[in-house]
Amino acid sequence: MRWLPFQLNPDVPEKGIPRAEYLQRKFGTPNRSYSRVAAVGATVGIPFAFDKIQVQPNTVNAHRLMHHAGQQGRQDEMAEELFRAYFIEGAKLTDIDTLADIGARAGLERDAVASYLASDADREVVRAADSEARNAGIGGVPYFIFNRKVGVSGAQDAETLLEAMIEADKADA
């Protein structure tokens, strides 16, 4: 499995914007409720804490961190830590020190992560991959691609994902 970059909000400034401002712009209210998502998360042991999110981030550096972690065989761990930090802890994902700490939690060397993020390394790689996804018609996440042949958009039940995997496997035959 590989995690590929896709920014939901590529126009958010690099330092991010206040979450209330973002919600007002996108949904017309600074107090958008995520209670349904939180309730579903609770049923599977995910204690979403959307009220802790103060900054809507530009995610280029978080995607760079995912790319960097992938080069070290730690991409799944990094995804888990990024999701935990943002959706449960309300971490500011635009802050390089915060991202370096998250990288360390995922098993990377903190100072090396901080140096990497302070540079422009892989910035264009991430932007090009994001652009490629948009040009392929992907408009949101999650988006699953099986065997580079079958795409499934949105949160789906296990049966739908299994059917897509079987279809992709048949396409290889």
Tell me what the structure shows.
The chain has two domains: 17-138, Glutaredoxin, CATH 3.40.30.10; 142-173, no CATH class. Helix 3 (60-71) packs antiparallel against helix 4 (75-88), helix 3 packs across helix 7 and helix 5 (96-105) packs antiparallel against helix 6. By secondary structure, the chain is mostly helical. The longest helix has 15 residues, at 158-172. The protein is 53% helix and 7% strand. The strands form two sheets. Strands 1-2 form a two-stranded antiparallel ribbon. A two-stranded antiparallel sheet has the order 3-4. The chain is globular and about 45 Å long. The model has no long low-confidence stretch (mean pLDDT 95).
Topology at a glance:
Elements (H helix, E strand, L loop, with lengths): L16 E2 H9 L7 H9 L11 E2 L3 H12 L3 H14 L7 H10 L4 H9 L4 H13 L7 E4 L3 E4 L4 H15 L1
Antiparallel strand pairs: 1-2, 3-4
Helix pairs in contact: 3-4, 3-7, 4-5, 5-6
Write a brief structural summary.
Helix content is 53%, strand content 7%.
Strand and helix order: EHHEHHHHHEEH
Arrangement of strands in the largest sheet: 1-2
Strand content: 5-15%
| Straight-line N-to-C gap | 20 Å
- Largest pleated sheet: 2 strands, antiparallel
Report the uncertain regions: none
Can you give the helix content as a percent range?
A: 40-55%
Tally of contiguous helical segments? 8
Shape-level CATH architecture of the largest domain: 3-Layer(aba) Sandwich
Q: How would you sum up the global shape?
A: globular
CATH homologous superfamily caption of the largest domain: Glutaredoxin
Mean pLDDT: 95
| Backbone structural class | mainly alpha
Our count of domains comes out at 2
Number of strands: 4
- What name does the CATH topology of the largest domain carry? Glutaredoxin
Radius of gyration: 17 Å
